[in-house]
Design a protein that fits this description.
heterodimer; A: alpha+beta; disordered N terminus; B: alpha+beta; 9-stranded antiparallel β-sheet
Chain lengths: ~90, ~400
């Protein structure tokens, strides 16, 4: 894991398009590693939750579609009983 | 005198102030209701919350709050920083960006404008009224020239009415840089074991300057050949004046409030300003005074950088600020030692437990809009503060 500090938005592009292809975003609530993944037939964004170890890959169309979200519509994913802390599954972190 | 005395009786007509105003836990608790629970309280500057989702933590009186810019609506909100479950502070960082907050204790998760969005293992709460368990919002939030205030009271004077005669000075402060000001340098914090009002009083107290800051004047004399005539100006320059602005606010002008100066040694503002009860401006700094208990205070000092100015210019602001007010500065630590710590030592002697705050009361003269104007070294700002303190404590009975 790279030990990179969270970055400003302007630095994000520099890292993705430049030599570095991974960066880490940390807040008091979350800690994720973002990577440009070129292993597949097309480029994907890889997000790894460093607390749970869970990973997702998002392709350009999925990412473009995310721009239609409001934060409120993203809300169900922030409900911990739906994502990580379900009583029938136990803790994921 | 017992500390259970009626607070207004603790200030006499000839301007003696009883020591318990500073030392009594009961007075402190009453202040929290009478001064900090009804009026407008400064919480943040808009430059600290420019992007949707930005937040900062601070205090409204003794109560911890989160100031947020809504992730979707971009509006400013002030929320109590207390999880509705078991009371933990939800946000710990001094500043950050988050659309949702997750409590570190049991994971309850809130939208950054307050509503409860989810609970961990929530099948244990079949009947919980989640809509009633959002982070508590302060009912009123308003901004004047970038300065954000909030109030625990749902009704009352508008922010502009409350600021009153202090508004023109806040306008000047907001226009210090070519494109305004920003608090992007953050703050340095100091803590002392004494009452919060001592820091407010010390913000405009020109009488002390030649005593507490004598070493500063001597260092300047060594460096530039002679000490700047700060005390001479305070004592003799009639354009230097202290003003009771009403509503507890006060100012010390160094000549014209737009162009005056203080010798260029203490920062850029052409005046010192106190906005009742706990917001101060001095030098190039916004000073937020945070009461913790009767005998404990935290102060956050935010250098105000000039938006649109060069980095070199803003560096000079920071270095000048640090030179006097910084932890190793030539002025601020002396204020802490003498005006707070030594006052604390002295006021443990309580046989004759009164302070004298009458300096220059005979020569206060009325000005326009109900203001009272006095000599630069007189205790006009202190009396302005305690006039409003007395009114608020009476109203809060």
């Amino acid at each position: 894991m790279e030990s990179m500090e969270s970055m400003e938005r302007g630095d994000l592009f520099k890292q993705v398009n430049g030599a570095g292809e991974r960066f880490r975003l940390t807040s008091e609530f979350g800690d994720v590693l973002i990577a440009l993944d070129r292993r597949a037939n097309g480029p994907r964004l890889q997000i790894e939750d460093l607390r749970s170890g869970r990973t997702i890959h998002l392709d350009p169309l999925e990412l473009a579609s995310l721009t239609w979200l409001t934060h409120e519509r993203l809300g169900p994913f922030l409900d911990p009983s739906q994502t990580g802390w379900r009583s029938d599954q136990g803790a994921c972190e | 005198m017992s500390t259970t005395a009626d607070p207004p009786a603790l200030i006499t007509d000839d301007w003696r102030i009883h020591g318990s105003v500073y030392t009594s836990d009961q007075i402190f608790e009453r202040e929290q209701q009478a001064l900090f629970h009804g009026s407008w309280l400064y919480v943040a500057h808009e430059s600290e919350l420019r992007e949707a989702g930005d937040y900062k933590t601070t205090h409204a009186g003794t109560q911890p709050v989160i100031v947020t810019r809504g992730a979707d609506d971009g509006e400013l909100h002030v929320l109590l920083n207390r999880c509705r479950h078991r009371g933990a502070a939800v946000c710990q960082a001094e500043r950050g960006n988050a659309s949702f907050f997750r409590c570190p204790y049991h994971g309850w998760t809130y939208r950054n404008d307050g509503p409860l969005r989810g609970i961990t293992y929530d099948d244990a709460y079949p009947h919980l009224d989640r809509d009633a368990l959002g982070l508590v919002r302060l009912p009123r939030v308003a901004s004047f020239r970038g300065f954000i205030f909030a109030s625990f009271a749902a009704e009352g004077d508008s922010l502009e009415d409350y600021l009153g005669n202090a508004k023109p000075y806040l306008e000047v402060i907001s226009e210090q840089g070519p494109e305004g000001i920003r608090l992007s340098a953050g703050a340095h914090n100091l803590t002392y074991e004494n009452n919060w009002k001592l820091q407010v009083e010390n913000t405009i107290d020109n009488y002390h300057f030649g005593f507490v800051h004598r070493s500063f004047l001597e260092v300047l004399a060594d460096r530039i050949g002679q000490a700047p005539p700060i005390m001479q100006s305070i004592m003799l320059d009639e354009s230097y004046r202290t003003i009771d602005l009403g509503n507890g606010h006060s100012v010390h002008e160094f000549g014209d409030p737009r162009t005056g100066n203080n010798g260029g040694q203490l920062g850029d503002l052409p005046f010192n300003l106190i906005v009742f009860p706990n917001l101060c401006f001095v030098g190039a700094q916004l000073r937020h005074v945070l009461p913790k208990s009767a005998l404990r205070t935290e102060v956050r000092l935010y250098p105000m950088l000039h938006e649109g100015a060069s980095d070199e210019h803003n560096e000079r602001i920071l270095r000048t600020h640090e030179g006097f007010y910084g932890p190793a500065g030539m002025g601020g630590p002396d204020d802490v030692e003498v005006a707070f710590d030594r006052v604390g030592d002295g006021m443990r002697a309580t046989e004759h437990d009164w302070l004298v705050m009458s300096r220059g009361m005979h020569r206060e003269r009325p000005g326009e809009n109900g203001i009272l104007i006095g000599h630069s070294a007189d205790e006009v700002p202190q009396r302005a503060f305690y006039r409003q303190w007395k009114r608020s404590m009476e109203a809060g009975r």
